[in-house]
Amino acid sequence: MGGAAAAGCAVGTNCGSPAVFTGSFGATTGLAGWRRIRTKGHRQAGPPMLLSAYFLNANGHSTRMIVIGRAYLSEREEIKKLIAEYHRSEGLRPNKERIAWAVRLQLRDTPGLLLVARDKDTIVGVALAVYSPSAELGRVMTVNDFFVSPDHRRKGVGRKLAKHLVEECKRMRIDEIGLEVLHENKIAAAFWNSVGFRPADRFLFRKKLEQATARNPTL
Ligand SMILES: CC(C)(COP(=O)(O)OP(=O)(O)OC[C@H]1O[C@@H](n2cnc3c(N)ncnc32)[C@H](O)[C@@H]1OP(=O)(O)O)[C@@H](O)C(=O)NCCC(=O)NCCS
After folding, report:
1. pTM greater than the 0.70 cutoff
2. Ligand 1: which residue has its CA nearest to atom 48?
């Protein structure tokens, strides 16, 4: 089915009929390669890899230093707050248990990514992406949450976060990055287009299941 690319950044039940964006790298790799990658130390729980430090002054923007890197375990409360702010901004009531569960899983030794943008000691951006294998598409990374604090927007933070997400995915030999954008979220669509993602030629289907995990996402 290749539906793995069709989950993502449009949050929760409010997805409507989102456009699906993908970025593709073409190369197809095997499981042996994946194991090799995992043993190279892509662990969220350890010290974060410093991916970049830069000054946002190219267009007369802020000159404060923003650093992109993997998240520390100790930052999980701050990350949870930022994701809750993101969900509220999308008109959703944040499900604290579910956010905590997703962040905890990403901070463990999972093959996904949890990247943060730091402005000194403050996290001002977050990207949470999960890995899933697809028999059709190969290694798919799906961006489920992507958010920049409102007071740090239009300063290139999102662009840098996306750039490093792509670089990390290339290092992990991911074949395709997928995410969803709600049709009404024109800013997100403009953003993903501007960083090289293109709408996918796929329908997005869903069926919500009333399960125990809806009441307790940690099950
Ligand atoms: C979408 C979002 C992550 C962009 O982050 P950002 O840090 O403001 O983006 P950047 O400053 O790096 O912008 C990169 C490019 O995206 C486009 N863009 C960003 N914001 C835009 C806006 N408000 N209107 C039009 N284009 C915009 C522009 O092309 C911009 O380049 P430019 O500033 O040189 O013109 C941010 O607006 C956000 O967190 N929105 C709410 C959450 C959300 O919708 N997440 C995405 C879900 S899929």
Report:
1. yes
2. 9
